[in-house]
Structures are given as structure tokens and as C-alpha cells.
């Protein structure tokens, strides 16, 4: 088979699996698990074959136009360069791991068939986004991912948090998608095509007249999808979904779609220095702010969610200094270790019966209950904190190295201001990342107090994939930084000495300071007993998690916050802690700015409709009703009356006709 | 003979029958009035047939043939009509046409044992008076 | 109206054939006879639709139909006349009388024989009569029927035309009569079955013969009748049959 055929099969197989799963879900439950896992595994193999054949050489470009659609043609196009091939491998690896993990995690869930089908559909849509060479087709995958995310976040729709979170995720991403769509149309109008290759040709030839406007419009959609400031608020709330969904969608793939999109169209963004500066500021605010917020969260998954936002900030930062190689490098390594972190967190939540770090810090021997999760999570946290030689170190240093390049004026692609912003914010974030990674590890695995409950070993399907993902978290960066430039633009991704020393130094400082603080505060833990565990610890992992999410707010007063004096983050952040826990009150600001005016407007419309419009409608109805009442009196039921009136009318008509006929 | 004589007589008989159909209360009397109307038509047919057979040398005698058919159909009609009236009478206990008001607005279909016959009669009379007025 | 106009034109043509001097003020003998019998017929018809005695109405209908038979004879349609006497007077009137008996129509004057629709009906009928008479007289006032020569409706002529030109409709009519026969039987049987179920649920025995009906059903027959008419509703239906035959005999 040609590479093109293989590449078409990659998104098609999960799509067919999703269709079959939805159709057979009720009638043949035995087929659901194979239908979920096998197509994803097959497309993993195919994606690997495609990547091997492409091998970083010339991009595979194939297109067919189904039907003429007017001025700007829409084509089914494939465009596979090194970025697309490797991103597809990452997506399929994570998707396969998540599907396997889900068979254990949602073992007892009655809605597992639809869940698995939606995950397959999501995988298919993401692969479509990755492989598509046409922006309209890319948009189809983009929106299908959005709706799948809505359904999957709302998987536990019995809980009010999940319902609110799914709606919020959908609306906030759509808020970004509207300008995104307008931007796509403006871009296609100016370039005369939706094909990415032609658009890039047009950019190179100077055919785009308003690059700043288009780039900013597209950035809105990217910010919504990739959870960048100020549209990032949906991602922490989306943790109300099942953990595998968080791992797949909200860590490794969907949120990476925005970064991937910008990486594809980077020359367009480079054409506008304003857009690059905006991108840099956005990245800086996102990475530093959400790292601060991550330090204050109590829910283990919300820590990881803010961490994801922060790491996505690194990627957009790399794009802001015009190096998509570094951005996609970080995307790949982050996808692996963040998926691992989420899946391990799912195991820990199941074992501990709670998602609260405060409650976990009051349990001892939790790490003995879940040794697989303990070791793999340690690896992943080290990768997150960018400690050499784990993969996160190399990718993060690539980003910082590029920023330093820009600052020292070695490149013409990006403004030096963007380089400074990204470099400083990146170093600050490296410090904070190490701090919250250390805090997470200490609170989760170094607790004191009564022993953690023993629910037996975790299912093999859940622990095996942790080790599978631990391999790239450990070794991907070290092996890849020499090879990847051949696949990407050819920019050198080797860590530079300055940034390596600086980055590793601040990370070590962050970790050590956090450890010292923890040593100081952990004594308070015994004094303030805290902790609520799920009511059904023997239930399936999915059920335990749903109960833990639903129980966090009544137990601690807030979905993200716990009044725990033994939290090292509280001491480190000082007065900032309260605001960081609430995500710097961005939700409150949105409530004041948007939600309340919209609600007031809705009330006004409701009033106008109920009181004003309806009055006219009722008035319009009353007159015919009176007329009807009057006419109804003629309906006596007496046939003779009817016939009398009928014949009287006949006589009148006949006389009139005679008079007309005789000319009288 | 002037053709006007049978024609006018026929018209008058027809209108008499018309009055009977509209004004009579008993269903059998209504049937009688229908017979009157049919006979008026028959008279017309015969008169015109006789006239045309002479004046226009018409040899089909279609008027007389149609008269015979009308008579036969009238016989059938009276048989069916009486059967219907008897069925109604057996079910409702009455053959008065202005009692059969199931199609009236707001009328509840009453069974054969509706107890409010006496009560509804004045109301029906009042409605009749309104309709007349 | 076009028909009337055509006929008027045709009549104008025949007027030329006939004598011009024939006016309404110099009637022939046949015309006088037709007029007199017509007056009797019309009067009987008016009485039929206005009398308050139901059985009398049927008997006056006999007079009307008999008068019409005489008019047919005067128009030289003798076969139609005998058919009229045989079928109408012989069977239809008898059927109607049976119907009156079976529905237990009251003997004697019943003040509610006319419905409240009377005045509307009168207005409509008078208006229709005025319009029809006006049109007919206007169209045919000069048209003359030549009654001399061979009769136009003798049995010979009628039979010949009927079985030469009208065989197919004639046979179709026999099918129609059969259908009517079957229909009448079905209706009566169905009514019996319904009445049987109704009787089983305790309703008045509507399916039973009228002669054995309990007297309490008499008010049901005519509940709107005031107290004044109560005595005349009393006699049973068999009495009504007797009274009817008496009246007939007296005529």
C-alpha cells in the first residue's frame, strides 16, 4: 500500500470503530472492548509505518476535490511532513494507552460503550486535524473534537460539577472558535485556497494583505482550544470528566491541537510582529500564572490541569520566538509524560478514595499500595520539572535555548522583546514547575497518619500502560534531540549551556525550597484532621472518582481549595495562595463581565416576550375567539336550519344569476 | 295545452315539498315532503317529454323513461329512508328531526338512556326560537 | 338559465308552428280540467305539509299523488299514470303509514308537528316558488303542447322506447333496487342487534314490537308534548292503525 493509503486509513479506522461501537453497543456488549482497542492499535501501527516511510523527508501531499463548491475550493487533502507524522504517532500512542486503561478504569460503567466510541471518534478527529492539508477539513476535525470533549467531560452527568464543566468547556472553546472561523475565511479569501501548502506559498510570496488581523483572529481559536490565557478557564473545570479522558483530551492531544495549528501556519504568524508579541505575552502570562495556580490547588487532577496549561504556555512561547521545532518537541515529550501523570493520578485516586491532596497527605503507605503509579509518576514528575536526563529537560531547554537565541539577536524571525518575555517567564515557570511537582509528590506519597486503605492490586490494564508511557518520559528527550531536527525545520535542538544551567538550577532551587517548606509544615498535618474518602471504595475506579469529585465541594467548601495548614504551597505563596487557588478570580471576572450581563439581557428578553409580546399575541387571539363564540351559536345541530340557510342562499344566487343573464 | 300550466304546477308542488322538508318535525313527514318534490320533478319531465315528442319529433321518450326511473328510485329511497328512521327511533326513542342534534356545538353525545330528555327539550325549544328569530 | 333561454328560444320556434291566438283567457277543455285537478293537487299538497294530524298528512298525500296521476293522463302519459297509481298510492303510501305506526305517531292533532323552523322555511319556500314561477312563466308563456293525435305516453310507445333505447339503465336500475332491498334489511337487522344489547343494559326495550310496549314509553316518544296533548298520545300503536284505517274508510 502507498503511504497515502496508509495515512488515509489512520483516521478512518478509529472512526469506523466508533461507528461500530455506537451501533453494537447495546446489542453486542462483547464486541465493545475489541472495537474500542483494536482500531486504535491498528492505527498506531499504521501511523508508525507512515512516520517511518515519511522519515522526515519530503512531505507527502495528496489532494482530491470531491465537488466544486464555489469560489474557494474545499479539497480532501493530506499533508504529512515530519511534524504531522510524529504528532500522529504521539496521538495514537496516547489514545491506545487510554483505550486500554479505560477497559480497566470504567470496567463497571454502564455507559462504557458510548464512552469508548466517543474516545475513538475523538482520536479519529484529532488524527484528521493532524493529517489534513486543507483548513476546512481540519476545521471539521477541530469541531468534532470539541463536541466529543463536551460529551466526555460530561460523562458523569449525574454530578452537577460535570454538567457545568462540560457546558463551560463547550461554550468557552466555541467563544474562541467563532473568531477562528472568521479568520479562516479571511485567510482563504486572501490566499485563494484552503490548502495549507498554497497558503504558505501565498505568505512567502507576500500575498496576504492583513496578516496581523488574520493571525489575531486565529489566535483566539488557538487560545480557546489550547487553553491559553484568557480562555483557559475551562480546562481545570474539565477535570470533572473521567481521568483517562483528561489524559487523552486535556493533556496530550486536543489542547495540543492549537499549538500544532500555529506550528503548521507559523510563517503566517511570523509575517506579523504584533501577533508574535501578543503570542509571547499570552504564553508568558499563561505559563507563569497557571504555574502559580497549580501550586495552590488541592485536587490532584486540577494541579495537573494547571500544569498542562503552563506547559502549553511553553509551547506557545516557543512559537512566539518562531521555532516550531522546539514547540512540537515539547508537545511530544509533554504529551507522553502528562498522559502518564494523569493515568497515574487515576490509579492514585482509586487507591486513596479521594482526589484531595490534603487527604492524601494524611495517609501513610499510599505508595506501597500503588507501586507502579509511584515509580512511573516519579519519573513523570521529574520529566515535568525538567531534571536531566528526563525527556522534559531536553524539550524545555530547547524552548529556553531558542528564546535565548532570539534575545542575543541570532535570528531575524521574532522580535527581541518576545524573546525576553519568553525567556524570563520560562525561567520563572521552571522554578514554579519544580515547586508544584515536588509538592504534589510529597503530599501524595509522603503522607503521615493512618494507613491508606488496601483495595488489592490495580488491574493490569491500568498499570501496564503506565510503564509503557514511562519509557518515552524517561528516554525520549535524550534520544530525540539529535534526530528530530532532521524531521523538523533543521533548527538545532541541543541544549545550550547557559539555559541548561539556569533552568536546572532554578528547578533544583524550587524543589529544595518546597522540600524545606514541607518539612516545616508537615508537623501541622496531625493537628488538623482532614479527609473525606469515597463512600464506595470497593467500587470501580470510575465510580470512586466520580464520588470523589462530587464530594470535594461539600467536604472542603470549594472544588479547588482545602483549608489545610500543612500545605507547603500555602507558606510558599503567602497571601497569594487564596487567589491562586481560585485561578486568580478569572471566573469571577468573567461572571461579572459576561455572565451577569447576559443573564440580565435574558431576563429582559424574557420579560419582553412574556409581558409585551404575549400581550399582543393574546390580544390577537381574543378577537377571533369572540367572533368564534358568536358564530358558534349558529351551530345548532338542527339539520333543517342548515338546509334552510343553504337553500335561501341558493335562491338568492339563482335569482341573481337570472337577473344577470337577462341583463336586468 | 299551454306548457306553462304543468310547469307552474310542478314549481308550486316542488316548493310545497320544500316547505315540508324544512318545516316538518317528524322524520316520516319529511320523507313525505321529499316524495312531493320528486313528483313535482316527474310532472315536469312528463310534460316536457310530451311537448318535445310533438314539437321536436323526439322519439327517445327520455322524459318518460327518466320518470319511470325516478319512481323506482323513489320507491327504493322510501324503503331505505324508513329503515333509517326506524333504526333511529329504536335507538333514540324519537323520530323528531330537531332532537337529533349530535353535531351541535358543545353537544355531549347522549346515549339512548340519556335522562335529561325532558330537561333538554325546553333548551332545544329556546334555541329553536333563537334560530327562528 | 341558459337552459331556460334555450327552451324559450325553442318555444318561440314552436309558437310559429302553433296558432298565435292561443291565450290564457280562452282555455281549452283539457286545460280547464288540468287546472281544476291541479288546484286540487296543490291544495292537497299544501294540506299535506301543514296538517297537524300525521296520519291525515299521509292520506292527503294520497290525494296529491292521485291528482298527479290524473294530470299524467291529461298529458296523455297513460303508462306513467298507472305506474304512479300502482307504486305511489299502492306501496309508498302504505309504507309511510307503516312507518308512522311503527314510530308510534300520535293520532289526532299534535301541535308540535311543525318545528320552530317554520317561518324560515315558509320564507325560503315562498321565495323559491316566486323565483321558479317567474322564470318558468317568463320562459314558457307562449309554448303550446299539441295533445292531438296519437298519445305520447301509451304503454306501446313507452315500452318500445324503454326496451329499445333504455335497456341498460333499466337493468342497472334493477341492480340498484336489489341493493336498496339488501340495505333496508341490513339496517333493520343491525338496529335489532343494537336494541338487543341496549335492552340487556336496562334501557327501554326499543326492539320490542310497539304493540306490547309499556305505556311509560309514550312520553319518551314525545316528551316535548305539553300536558294538553297528553290524552292523544295515550292510545297504543295498534289503535293508531285502527284509526288510520277508519280514516281511510271514511275518505
Automatic annotation (TrEMBL), chain B:
Please note every region of biased composition (Basic and acidic residues): 98-120
Q: Which organism is it from?
A: Streptomyces viridosporus (strain ATCC 14672 / DSM 40746 / JCM 4963 / KCTC 9882 / NRRL B-12104 / FH 1290) (Streptomyces ghanaensis)
Give the lineage: Bacteria, Bacillati, Actinomycetota, Actinomycetes, Kitasatosporales
* The family this protein is said to belong to: Belongs to the complex I subunit 4L family.
EC main class here is translocase
Task: List where in the cell it is found.
Answer: Cell membrane; Membrane
| Name this polypeptide is given | NADH-quinone oxidoreductase subunit K
Q: Which gene encodes it?
A: nuoK
Q: How does it sit in the membrane?
A: Multi-pass membrane protein
Give the keywords, sorted: Cell membrane, Membrane, NAD, Quinone, Translocase, Transmembrane, Transmembrane helix, Transport
This protein's record includes keyword Nucleotide-binding: no
Self-association and partners = NDH-1 is composed of 14 different subunits. Subunits NuoA, H, J, K, L, M, N constitute the membrane sector of the complex.
Q: Name one GO molecular function term.
A: quinone binding
Amino acid at each position: 500500500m502507498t503511504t497515502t493509503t496508509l495515512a488515509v486509513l489512520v483516521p478512518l479506522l478509529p472512526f469506523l470503530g466508533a461507528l461500530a461501537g455506537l451501533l453494537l453497543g447495546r446489542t453486542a456488549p462483547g464486541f465493545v472492548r475489541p472495537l474500542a482497542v483494536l482500531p486504535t492499535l491498528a492505527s498506531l501501527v499504521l501511523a508508525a509505518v507512515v512516520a517511518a516511510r515519511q522519515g522526515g523527508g519530503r512531505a507527502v501531499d495528496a489532494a482530491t476535490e470531491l465537488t466544486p463548491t464555489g469560489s474557494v475550493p474545499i479539497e480532501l487533502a493530506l499533508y504529512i511532513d515530519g511534524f504531522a507524522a510524529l504528532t500522529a504517532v504521539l496521538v495514537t500512542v496516547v489514545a491506545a494507552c487510554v483505550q486500554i486503561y479505560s477497559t480497566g478504569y470504567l470496567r463497571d460503567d454502564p455507559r462504557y460503550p458510548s464512552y469508548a466510541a466517543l474516545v475513538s471518534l475523538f482520536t479519529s478527529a484529532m488524527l484528521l486535524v493532524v493529517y489534513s492539508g486543507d483548513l476546512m477539513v481540519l476545521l471539521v476535525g477541530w469541531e468534532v473534537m470539541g463536541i466529543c470533549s463536551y460529551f466526555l467531560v460530561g460523562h458523569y452527568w449525574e454530578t452537577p460539577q460535570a454538567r457545568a464543566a462540560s457546558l463551560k468547556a463547550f461554550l468557552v472553546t466555541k467563544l474562541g472558535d467563532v473568531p477562528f472561523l472568521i479568520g479562516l475565511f479571511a485567510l482563504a479569501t486572501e490566499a485563494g485556497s484552503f490548502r495549507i501548502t498554497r497558503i504558505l506559498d501565498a505568505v512567502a510570496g507576500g500575498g496576504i494583505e492583513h496578516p496581523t488581523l488574520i493571525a489575531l483572529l486565529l489566535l483566539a481559536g488557538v487560545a480557546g482550544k489550547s487553553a491559553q490565557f484568557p480562555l483557559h478557564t475551562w480546562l481545570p473545570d474539565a477535570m470533572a470528566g473521567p481521568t483517562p479522558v483528561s489524559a487523552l483530551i486535556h493533556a496530550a492531544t486536543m489542547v495540543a491541537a492549537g499549538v500544532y495549528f500555529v506550528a503548521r501556519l507559523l510563517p503566517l504568524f511570523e509575517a506579523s510582529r504584533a501577533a508574535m508579541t501578543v503570542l509571547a505575552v499570552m504564553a508568558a502570562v499563561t505559563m507563569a500564572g497557571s504555574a502559580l495556580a497549580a501550586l495552590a490547588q488541592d485536587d490532584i487532577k486540577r494541579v495537573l490541569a494547571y500544569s498542562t496549561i503552563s506547559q502549553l504556555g511553553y509551547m506557545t512561547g516557543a512559537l512566539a520566538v518562531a521555532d516550531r521545532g522546539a514547540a512540537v518537541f515539547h508537545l511530544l515529550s509533554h504529551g507522553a509524560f502528562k498522559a502518564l501523570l494523569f493515568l497515574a493520578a487515576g490509579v492514585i485516586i482509586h487507591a486513596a478514595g479521594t482526589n484531595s491532596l490534603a487527604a492524601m497527605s494524611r495517609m501513610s503507605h499510599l505508595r506501597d499500595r500503588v507501586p507502579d503509579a509511584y515509580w512511573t509518576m516519579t519519573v513523570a514528575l521529574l520529566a515535568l520539572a525538567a531534571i536531566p536526563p528526563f525527556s522534559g529537560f531536553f524539550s524545555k531547554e530547547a524552548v529556553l535555548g531558542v528564546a535565548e537565541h532570539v534575545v542575543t539577536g541570532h535570528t531575524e524571525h521574532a522580535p527581541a522583546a518576545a524573546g525576553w518575555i519568553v525567556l524570563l517567564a520560562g525561567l520563572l515557570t521552571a522554578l514554579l514547575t519544580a515547586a508544584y511537582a515536588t509538592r504534589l509528590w510529597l503530599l501524595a506519597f509522603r503522607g503521615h497518619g493512618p494507613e491508606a486503605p488496601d483495595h488489592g492490586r490495580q488491574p493490569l490494564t491500568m498499570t501496564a500502560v503506565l510503564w509503557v508511557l514511562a519509557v518515552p518520559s524517561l528516554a525520549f528527550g535524550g534520544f530525540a534531540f539529535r534526530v528530530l531536527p532532521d524531521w523538523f525545520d533543521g533548527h538545532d535542538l541541543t541544549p545550550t549551556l547557559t539555559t541548561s544551567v539556569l533552568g536546572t538550577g532554578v528547578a533544583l532551587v524550587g524543589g529544595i525550597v518546597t522540600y524545606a517548606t514541607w518539612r516545616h509544615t508537615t508537623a501541622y498535618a496531625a493537628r488538623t484532621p482532614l479527609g473525606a474518602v469515597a463512600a464506595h471504595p470497593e467500587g470501580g475506579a470510575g465510580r470512586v472518582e466520580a464520588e470523589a469529585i462530587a464530594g470535594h465541594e461539600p467536604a472542603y467548601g470549594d472544588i479547588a481549595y482545602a483549608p489545610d495548614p500543612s500545605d507547603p504551597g500555602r507558606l510558599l505563596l503567602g497571601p497569594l495562595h487564596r487567589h491562586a487557588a481560585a485561578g486568580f478570580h478569572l471566573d469571577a471576572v468573567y461572571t461579572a463581565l459576561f455572565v451577569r450581563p447576559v443573564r440580565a439581557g435574558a431576563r429582559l428578553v424574557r420579560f419582553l416576550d412574556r409581558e409585551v409580546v404575549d400581550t399582543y399575541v393574546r390580544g390577537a387571539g381574543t378577537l377571533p375567539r369572540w367572533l368564534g363564540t358568536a358564530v358558534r351559536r349558529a351551530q345548532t345541530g338542527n339539520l333543517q336550519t342548515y338546509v334552510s340557510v343553504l337553500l335561501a342562499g341558493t335562491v338568492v344566487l339563482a335569482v341573481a344569476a337570472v337577473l344577470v343573464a337577462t341583463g336586468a | 295545452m299551454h306548457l306553462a300550466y304543468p310547469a307552474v304546477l310542478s314549481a308550486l308542488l316542488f316548493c310545497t315539498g320544500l316547505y315540508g322538508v324544512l318545516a316538518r318535525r317528524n322524520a316520516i313527514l319529511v320523507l313525505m315532503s321529499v316524495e312531493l318534490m320528486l313528483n313535482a320533478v316527474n310532472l315536469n319531465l312528463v310534460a316536457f317529454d310530451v311537448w318535445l315528442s310533438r314539437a321536436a319529433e323526439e322519439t327517445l321518450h327520455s322524459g318518460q323513461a327518466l320518470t319511470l326511473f325516478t319512481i323506482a328510485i323513489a320507491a327504493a329511497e322510501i324503503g331505505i329512508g324508513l329503515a333509517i328512521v326506524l333504526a333511529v327511533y329504536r335507538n333514540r326513542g324519537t323520530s323528531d328531526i330537531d332532537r337529533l342534534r349530535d353535531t351541535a356545538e358543545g353537544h355531549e353525545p347522549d346515549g339512548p338512556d340519556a335522562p335529561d330528555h325532558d330537561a333538554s327539550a325546553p333548551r332545544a325549544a329556546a334555541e329553536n326560537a333563537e334560530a327562528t328569530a | 338559465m341558459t337552459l331556460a333561454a334555450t327552451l324559450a328560444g325553442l318555444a318561440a320556434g314552436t309558437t310559429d308552428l302553433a296558432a298565435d291566438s292561443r291565450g290564457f283567457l280562452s282555455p281549452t277543455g283539457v286545460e280547464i280540467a288540468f287546472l281544476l285537478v291541479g288546484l286540487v293537487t296543490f291544495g292537497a299538497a299544501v294540506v299535506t305539509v301543514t296538517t297537524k294530524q300525521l296520519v291525515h298528512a299521509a292520506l292527503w298525500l294520497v290525494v296529491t299523488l292521485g291528482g298527479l296521476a290524473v294530470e299524467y293522463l291529461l298529458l296523455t302519459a297513460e303508462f306513467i299514470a298507472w305506474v304512479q297509481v300502482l307504486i305511489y298510492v299502492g306501496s309508498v303510501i302504505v309504507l309511510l303509514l307503516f312507518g308512522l305506526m311503527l314510530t308510534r305517531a300520535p293520532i289526532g292533532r299534535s301541535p308540535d308537528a311543525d318545528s320552530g323552523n317554520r317561518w324560515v322555511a315558509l320564507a325560503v319556500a315562498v321565495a323559491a316558488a316566486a323565483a321558479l314561477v317567474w322564470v318558468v312563466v317568463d320562459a314558457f308563456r307562449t309554448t303550446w303542447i299539441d295533445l292531438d293525435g296519437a298519445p305520447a305516453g301509451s304503454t306501446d310507445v313507452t315500452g318500445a322506447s324503454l326496451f329499445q333505447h333504455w335497456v341498460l339503465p333499466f337493468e342497472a336500475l334493477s341492480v340498484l333496487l336489489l341493493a336498496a332491498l339488501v340495505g333496508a334489511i341490513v339496517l333493520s337487522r343491525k338496529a335489532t342487534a343494537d336494541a338487543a344489547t341496549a335492552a340487556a343494559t336496562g334501557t327501554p326495550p326499543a326492539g320490542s314490537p310497539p304493540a306490547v310496549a309499556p305505556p311509560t314509553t309514550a312520553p319518551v316518544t314525545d316528551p316535548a308534548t305539553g300536558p294538553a296533548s297528553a290524552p292523544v298520545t295515550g292510545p297504543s300503536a295498534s289503535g293508531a292503525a285502527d284509526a288510520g284505517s277508519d280514516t281511510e274508510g271514511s275518505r
